[in-house]
Amino acid sequence: MSDDSEPGWFSEDAATFGDRLAGAREAAQMTQAELAKRLGVKLKTVTAWENDISEPRANKLQMVAGLLNVSIKWLLTGEGDGLEAPDEENALEADARSLIGEMRQVRSEMTRMSDRLGRMEKRLRGLLKEAI
């Protein structure tokens, strides 16, 4: 957490309320769904906040700040107690790990779909032999 008042990564010039909310939520290792559940709001509400379509009312804003361990002022302006700018190297590492995980998932799904396609082809050949 920092109390820097100079413009930085999460300042009003560099980030929006939604950017700061998403950053704080991710730093707290929480999904949008988890945050929504803990706040007692719908998932689409949190998504709208993070996409800067809407902003929470004062009571929810206070709850968000408390849950994410940042100040209300930081969420609104980027000033006050909030997150440090992301470490470029760690951010890249995390992105790379995430990408590798996604690639493994796609490969697994492709293998499963290939097996399914093989079974379907075998059934089709059997149906065609019966028809002849």
How would you explain this protein's 3D organization?
- This protein folds into two domains: about 15-75, 434 Repressor (Amino-terminal Domain) (Orthogonal Bundle), CATH 1.10.260; about 85-130.
- Mean pLDDT is about 85; it is low at about 1-5.
- It is mainly alpha-helical.
- It has six helices and no strands.
- It starts with 16 loop residues before the first helix and ends with a helix.
- Helix 2 packs across helix 3 (about 45-50).
The share of residues in extended strands comes to under 5%
Assigned CATH architecture of the largest domain: Orthogonal Bundle
Q: Give the name of the CATH superfamily of the largest domain.
A: lambda repressor-like DNA-binding domains
Integer average pLDDT: 83
Question: How many β-strand runs?
Answer: 0
Largest sheet: none
Q: State the share of residues found in helices, binned by percent.
A: 55-70%
- Give the number of domains: 2
CATH domain class of the largest domain = Mainly Alpha
Number of distinct helices:
6
CATH topology of the largest domain: 434 Repressor (Amino-terminal Domain)
Anisotropy-based shape? elongated
Poorly predicted parts: 1-7
Question: For the terminal residues, how far apart are their CA atoms?
Answer: 74 Å
In terms of structural class, how would the helical and strand content be classed?
Answer: mainly alpha
Sketch the topology as an H/E string, one letter per element: HHHHHH
Radius of gyration: 23 Å
